[in-house]
Amino acid sequence: MAGSGTGSRLRLLITTWAVTRAVLLLCVFRVLDMPGSDVAVDIEVIYKNWYGVFSTGVFPYDDVTWQYPPAAALAVLAPGLLPFLDYAPAFFLVCWVADAAILAMLLYAVRGGRRDRRGVWVWVIGVPLLGPIVYARYDVMVTAVAVAGLLALGRRTRVAGALAGFGALLKIWPVLLLAGVERGPRTRSAWSSALVTGVVLVMFFAAAMPGALAFLTFQRDRGTEVESLGSLVFHLGRHFGWHGRARLHYGSVEFLGRHVHAVSALALGLSLLAFGWLLLWRLRARTFTACTASDAAFTAVLLFTTTSRVISPQYVVWLIGLAAVCATVRSTRQGLPIVLVLVAAPLTQLEFPIWFQHVIASDKLGVATLTLRNALLVVATVIACRRLWRATVNVPPSAAGEQEPPAERASELVSG
Questions:
Q1: How many Cβ atoms are within 10 Å of 73's Cβ, its own excluded?
Q2: Burial of 241 (0-12, 13-18, 19+ CB in 10 A)
Q3: Which string of DSSP letters, residue by residue, matches 59-76?
């Protein structure tokens, strides 16, 4: 009876994944029309153009919209693995495969009751809440690498470090996966593996393809994007006499006008403060349990997503992937922040693409939706930081010995 119930729940989970992903594919293939902007345009125009440039053996170093680390070229070139399809359909299918790979990794992680299956549901439900944008950007591929690395931290520290290093050269943020690795040999193993992987890949791309590091200049010159936390200053300011503009700039819609540079600098300052808090936590943390690595990774990415000058919709894919891994660990302290991220996902889909014109116009509907989404991310970040600190720093000496064993020892105990 128990086995039958487990099998039924697994079939329900897989069926839900299959149905929701079919709907997403129908959207990006334009079989189903979705209100608002067409999220697939960037793939059909910008990504396809990059693919043509990469095919010549160079990076698009004169294109300011190219703002990604060198290994991102592999994601852009990936649709070439399906030469019988046009670029955009092949790209969507590669993203679908990455999505399926994440599902498979999570299911493998929870097999035999070793982890909580609710984490798999977080991924299955979270992605459709965010909408077709998941298959219209390469972030789901990066998330697949990050999920693999975070799940590997339990036993294969060097593999996890290598995946984090590779992920960092896809889109920087996966390096944060290593924020919560237990001190000692595990930290040295993970970080040395990540460093070696990163250095080798950078040297390879720099030697093989001119323009590999041009993205650094383009990232430096970015301003305040209209969906970011700092943009709310200008959305509200428009109703009180501020006369700036929202224009396509450096590959995204940003605000241009007076005081924009100051707000952008403030956002960078907040990111530095976030880094400082993370470093302080790392130095002060004294209790590392089975959930610390995933909780810390989720918290770190929340911190840098929320304080960024740019909060593109696809960034939420990262949070959903890391939230799914967190939720597979029964002792996770991040339950409420995970729920808040899941609530923020459909609001993100509303502000882009469905109501994006309202956001650009800074009208009441656009500002209200964006404010609510960003407020949820801020609250989730504050709660996540507080819970991580309390679970690892503010632990009474008498309770420290009663904490769960670190992830590696815990998995060994479970597996016998």
A1: 23
A2: exposed
A3: --TT-TT--S-TTHHHHH
DSSP 43: I
User: How would you write the pLDDT of the chain (416 residues) with one tens digit per residue?
Assistant: 455 667 888 999 999 999 999 999 999 999 988 776 578 889 999 999 999 999 999 998 888 788 899 999 999 999 999 999 999 999 999 999 999 999 999 999 999 888 999 999 999 999 999 999 999 999 999 999 999 999 999 889 999 999 999 999 999 999 999 999 999 999 999 999 999 999 999 999 989 888 888 777 766 667 789 999 999 999 999 999 998 899 887 778 999 999 999 999 999 999 999 999 999 999 999 999 999 999 999 999 999 999 999 999 999 999 999 999 999 999 999 999 999 999 999 999 999 999 999 999 999 999 999 999 999 999 999 999 999 999 999 776 555 444 444 444 433 323 32
Token pair belonging to 250: 């450096």
3-state secondary structure of 325: helix
The predicted model scores a pTM of 0.93
Instruction: Compute CA 82 distance to the chain's CA centroid, rounded to the nearest angstrom.
Output: 26
CB atoms within 10 A of CB 217: 11
C-alpha neighbours within 13 Å on the C-beta side of residue 350: 15
State how far the Cα of 144 lies from the Cα of 95, in Å rounded to an integer.
Answer: 10
Q: How far apart are the C-alpha atoms of 170 and 38, rounded to whole Å?
A: 25
Q: Is residue 177 within 8 Å of 144, Cβ to Cβ?
A: no
